[in-house]
Each structure stands twice: as C-alpha cells, then as structure tokens.
Design brief:
heterodimer; A: 89 residues; 3 helices; 2 strands; B: 637 residues; mainly alpha; two-stranded antiparallel sheet; 25 helices; 4 strands
C-alpha cells in the first residue's frame, strides 16, 4: 500500500465526492427496494414475456439493478480514488 | 502429510486449480450416472455423493492447515476479489436459500419474493456503507471495530453478545438443514445425522480457520450452483423447449393464473401483499404490504450486519478488491436467487397441469416415492386412510372418489427443490447432485458462522480482554477448542429441538440488524459520534429486538395484556404467538433497527463527541491509502 495521505482540505473534498456517490446509490437502492414494489398490483396488469410486471420487478428487475449498483459503485469509487491519487493498487 | 497449500503459488494458480476441480467433479457426476445405468443401487449413489464431497472439503481443510494468526483469522489477506465473491456466495447461501426458498415461493407466490429481494439488496448497503472501510480498518473481527471505534471493552463486549446470539441462532438452523439432508440420503435418524453433518463442518474449519474455510467455500459454491441450475434447466426444456428457466417461467406464470381460475384456487400466485393475519381474504392489503416491506428491510439491513459475511471482506488484498468483491459476491448470489422463482413456478405448473384432478390410480411415480414414510414430503390424500400411505396427509380427509382434488394434495416446502429432479424425470444421480448441493450450501454457511463465533470468543474475549499477552500458539489452540465446543453445543441444540429453518434464519438477521447496523454505519459516517452513543445504539436496538422477539414468540398473551388491541394472537408453531400491530415476528428487527439509530443519535447529541484523535482515525479508514491512525488510550492492539 502506498503511504500517500491527504491534506485536511483534500480529505474534505474526497469525502464529499464519496458521500455524494453513496447518497446517489442509496437513493436508487431505496427506489428499487421499496418504492417500485408499492405499485406491484397495478404493474401486474402489464405483461412482458408472460411475466406480470409487478412480479417481474420483485423477482428479477430489482435484482439486476442491485448487481449493477454494486458494480457501478466499485467503478465510480475507483475513479474518485485515482483522481485523488489514493488508489491502493 | 508433507504437502501444505503455500499461499503464493496456490493463489497464482487458482484459475487452473478450480477449473481442474470443476472438470473432475463433472466427470464424477457422469461416472455415477454410468454406474446408475448399470444398475448400481440408489442408496450407494447417495453415499458416494455425500462422502466424496465431504472428503474433498476435508482434503482442502487439511491442506490449508495453518499455524499463523493472520492466515487463521483472515486467510492471510490474499483472497482475490473474484474468488472472495464465490466464497461469500457459499458463505451466504445457506440451507434456507438452497432448499427452503423455492418452497416459500411456491406457497407464498409474490409475497415470497421478499426473501429474494431482501437477501440480495443488502449487498448494496455492504458495498457503499461498510466493506471498503472495514477492510481498511484491517483488524480481525467485527467486534474489533466496535472496540476501537467506541472506546473499549464495553462496546466490544456488547458486539460480541450480539454476534454470538445472532450467529448461534443461524448456525442451529444450518445444522438442522445438514441433518435433514444427511438423514434422508444416508437413512440415519435426525439426531445422529446432525452429528455426522457436524464432522463435515469441522473437518474444514478446525485446522485451517478462515484460510481453509475460504478455499472450501469456493469449492462448495461451484457444486451448489451446478446442482441448483441443472434440474430447473431440464424442467424448463421439458415444459417450454428453451433451456433458460429465468426467461421462460413467465409463460408458466401465465398458465398458473389460468389454472387458478379453472381450479377455483383463491390465493393467486401473483397477487401481492396478502395479509398474514388468519382469516383474512387472499387479496392485496395494507397488512400484507407492511409485512412485506418490513421483512425486506430486516433482511437487507441484516445482510449488512452479519459478522460472518462482513468478515469475508477482511480477507482481500486491498480496499479496491474488497469493493470489487462485493459485486462479484452479489453476482454469484444473484445466479441462484433469480432462478429460485422459476423453480417455484415450474413445480406449481407441473402440479396443476399433471397432478390435480387426475385419477389416483395413475399418479406420477414421484408422488409415491416422495410421499412414502421416511421422506413424507408429498401427500395425495384422497383415500379415507390416506395417512397410512402418505404421512403428510395426517388430518386431511379426502372424499375417496379416486380423483386427486386440489384440496387433497399436500406438499412440503423442502420438496420443491429436492423432488424437482424426479418431477422432471431425471435419473437418480441428479437427485444425489442436488443433495450434495444442499449439503454444500448448509456446510459452507455453518463453517463461516462457527468460525465467526469461535473467533469472537478467542480473539475478542480471550485475547483482547482476558489475556492480551497470550502467544500465537496459545491463541490458536484456544480458538480451535472453542470452535469444537460451540459446534457440539449447536449440534446438540439442533438435534434436540429441530425447528423451522426459515424462521431461525430470519430472527438471526433481525438480531444482527438491530444490534450492529447503526453502530457500524454511524461509526464510519458520523465521525463526531462519541463512545456513549455507540454503546447506547447497540444496547437499545438489540434490547428492543430481543424484547419483542421473546415476548411475541413465547409470551404472546402477556404482550397482549401490555399493548391491548394492537396485538393479534395467532396460533402457530404450537404456541400463542403475538402479532403486534399485525406484524409477523419474522421481521422483528423492524422495532430494533430504528430504535438503535434514534438512541445513538440522541445520546450522541447529548454526550461528549469523539476526540480529535478518534476523528483522525476515522479519516484514515475512509481513504484507501495511508496508515490507519492509532488511537492512544483506547485498547492496546
């Protein structure tokens, strides 16, 4: 691991960016964990490949979003790390 | 044995080693298939599957034996993101996921999807709130974090209590799962089977700790995912002609809804939010929605709090790899979870299409073989004395017209996954494969949990609090002895009590979520939060969760006396269980999780904020590079 450490000001900027990414992902997570499924009953009237849409969102749609969010978080945070020169490998 | 898995050459060749392993396993399955073709009895095939897979895990365990503390506790921190993802997948997916979940979806329909959502979405929280920071913190256990962050022994001890109660509840459920599978395939009594399964668990973890558990879990993941996917792919081909069950079960859902109408089944597979209270109509309701979302929240937050999962992210070589390995974990878990609803749909369609309203004389063979005493997972209850042939029919009186009506059919939750190979008309060797997969799922989770408990006792209690001067050898011996003792107690409890796997597992999630989540999140994200606040958060959150869990489950009427009309009493599991505000205690964490945050916030605002030193320490774990700042005056490391 490199020994680079940030100045107080850089640290604030780094954490600011990291927090924004966190809140952004947390927001999308909340939508696909809870909000979308509130409308499960009306969504079930729409059918795609035989799947009622409300059922599909809980069985697959949200899961795909979760995998994407974790992948995206790793990618975006790595970019922030590189920008501040604090990537650890 | 002279050979031992040396970390560096082994880690460099991981791809080759696991490719050869997977190929050998496939060849082994084909070989057993050939044996079956030439008339080798099923019982022998079952033995081969169980003993050979446990033998492989034992071999990995022996080859990974270690005398180094860092290897024993965190696998030497050399596990690449991809493999840590697989290991986490096996660690994570338990008997409840592998055997129980598809069954819950069969019965629960839409509402069962709370498990699918809850057991995947939590990884987003792990990724953004915790894993990279805990990895940077770089200690051995989750209580280590509480000890360092909230100033010492009190916070550490509380975290240890939560860890042990949650993990122990969880591990009992796993051993019940191991007992069910080994019992069924080896023809042993349940109690004996629990102890036989225990040997399978101990051979991996006892000698090599986290290092052995890691490489065994990767091997177990490969077996369990193959075993889970093959039967449902074949079933999908048979029912739809396309080998992608995840895509094709939409058609099955459509047909199920049509059958529901013609068969007059009130509870539809796709109707969301059906009330959990007895006597309610099977339609969308507020009570159903509240319970659905409460369960999702508890399972997700529990995911991000269970120490046996979080400690997997201590084993990667870097912070970056810890982050990457979270999404690999979720990807490997996703492969199973997005297939589970297909199992449920195909099994249900098969039952509606080929079983209901067919003559008793021409039932498919699997009904009789899985309904026989000893297995008793299916019941065709048309005859007056049906319970003599199908033990599951006890209490059901059929109309004896020689036709199997919907009301006369009984199927056990576990049967959906275990019987699918036979429903699909596959050879017995695939049933053996599924048993081996279920066993791998239960063993790998049990291993991770037992190790988490033993490490908390040996590292946090013994080394950090009782004898900080203990040398390496002594610490590792203590750790192994404790592992053995905890394992035997867990097997004894499992063998004597037995219990509903899904409930035990869900309670474990609620306990961990109520006790540890607020402390972990605020510890990293609110750096001014002081020591007293951290302690208050765990104590109030966990305390309230346990209060509601014990009261609702065992003292339902007393809780009703306390809360009055808000409580509904439901007769279930042989008790008067209380449903406060209509909430099923499977999601009891709904009381503890917010309480922990509120308590920690209020106490944090009222008491002294954290020292400058503590804030520097937190800054240092927020950034991947640089040394972790020591905290003087806190515990010695």
């Amino acid at each position: 691991m490199a020994d680079k450490s940030l100045s107080a000001e850089q640290m604030r900027a780094y954490w600011d960016r990291t927090s924004k990414l966190m809140y952004g992902i947390l927001f999308i997570w909340f939508i696909f964990s809870f909000v979308v499924h509130i409308f499960a009953a009306p969504l079930n009237n729409i059918r795609i490949f035989g799947f009622p849409l409300g059922f599909y969102m809980a069985a697959q749609g949200s899961l795909i979003v979760f995998v994407f969010l974790c992948w995206w978080n790793a990618r975006a945070q790595n970019k922030i790390d590189e920008e501040f020169g604090v990537q650890d490998e | 044995m002279a050979y031992r898995i040396g970390q560096s050459s082994f880690v460099q060749n991981l791809g080759k080693i696991y490719a050869i392993y997977t190929g050998t396993f496939a060849a082994f399955v084909v070989f057993l298939g050939v044996l079956e073709y030439f008339g080798v009895p099923n019982r022998f095939l079952g033995y081969m599957f169980i003993f050979l897979t446990i033998g492989v895990y034992a071999l990995i365990g022996v080859l990974s034996r270690t005398a180094e503390v860092a290897e024993y506790y965190v696998a030497g921190r050399v596990v690449p993101a991809f493999y840590n993802g697989m290991a986490t997948g096996a660690d994570w997916m338990s008997a409840a996921s592998f055997i129980g979940m598809a069954g819950s979806l069969y019965f629960g329909g839409y509402d069962g999807l709370a498990f699918v959502l809850g057991w995947t979405g939590g990884y987003v929280l792990v990724a953004i709130l915790m894993a990279p920071y805990l990895r940077k913190f770089g200690q051995f256990t989750v209580p280590d974090f509480f000890g360092a962050r909230y100033g010492g022994h009190l916070a550490r001890s509380l975290a240890v209590v939560v860890l042990i109660l949650a993990s122990f509840t969880y591990v009992v459920a796993q051993i019940v799962g191991v007992g069910i599978i080994t019992g069924r395939f080896l023809g042993l009594g349940f109690q004996t089977a629990c102890f036989v399964g225990l040997i399978g668990i101990l051979v991996c973890s006892l000698l090599g700790g986290m290092k052995a558990v890691t490489w065994t879990q990767v091997a177990q993941y490969i077996i369990l995912i193959i075993a889970y996917l093959i039967p449902v792919i074949v079933l999908s081909v048979q029912l739809t002609g396309v080998p992608i069950p995840e895509l094709m079960y939409g058609q099955a859902l459509q047909k199920i809804v049509e059958y529901e109408k013609t068969l007059g089944i009130a509870r539809s597979h796709i109707t969301p939010f059906i009330s959990v209270l007895p006597g309610a109509k099977p339609e969308t309701s507020l009570n159903g929605a509240i319970n659905f979302f409460a369960l999702i929240l508890c399972l997700m937050v529990g995911t991000a709090s269970l120490p046996h999962v979080l400690m997997r992210y201590f084993t990667t070589p870097s912070v970056k790899q810890a982050r990457d390995s979270v999404w690999w974990s979720l990807f490997f878990i996703f492969l199973l979870y997005f297939t589970a609803p297909a199992y449920a749909a195909f099994a249900k369609l098969e039952v509606y299409q080929n079983l209901i309203n067919s003559p008793m004389a021409s039932l498919p063979a699997w009904v009789n073989s899985w309904g026989a005493p000893g297995l008793a997972l299916v019941g065709a209850c048309d005859a007056k004395n049906a319970a003599d042939i199908f033990p599951l029919c006890k209490g059901v009186t059929g109309n004896a017209d020689g036709i199997l009506q919907f009301a006369e059919f009984r199927i056990h939750t576990d049967a959906i996954v275990l019987a699918t190979p036979e429903i699909a008309g596959l050879p017995y060797v695939i049933s053996g494969l599924v048993a081996a997969g279920g066993l791998a799922a239960a063993l790998s989770t049990a291993d991770g949990l037992l190790l988490a408990i033993a490490n908390a006792l040996s590292h946090d209690v013994y080394y950090k609090m009782i004898d900080p001067k203990a040398d390496t050898k002594r610490r590792l011996i203590i750790s192994r002895v404790l592992l053995l003792i905890v394992a035997i107690i867990a097997a004894y409890v499992a063998g004597t009590l037995g219990a509903d796997i899904l409930f035990l597992v869900s309670w474990a999630f609620s306990m961990a979520a109520s006790g540890l989540f607020a402390g972990l999140v605020l510890g990293i994200w609110w750096k001014r939060c002081g020591n007293a606040a951290g302690v208050a958060g765990i104590a109030v959150g966990f305390g309230l969760c346990m209060f509601f869990l014990i009261m609702t489950e065992f003292y339902g009427p007393a809780l009703k006396g306390l809360l009055g009309d808000a409580v509904t009493i439901v007769k279930i599991r042989g008790r008067d269980v209380a449903y406060p505000w209509g909430i099923n205690n499977i999601s009891v964490g709904i009381f503890g999780i917010p309480a922990a945050f509120i308590a920690q916030w209020i106490v944090g605002k009222m008491t002294q904020e954290s020292s400058k030193e503590m804030q520097d320490f937190i800054d240092s774990i927020r950034v991947p590079t640089g040394a972790v700042k020591p905290i003087a005056g806190a515990e010695a490391h």
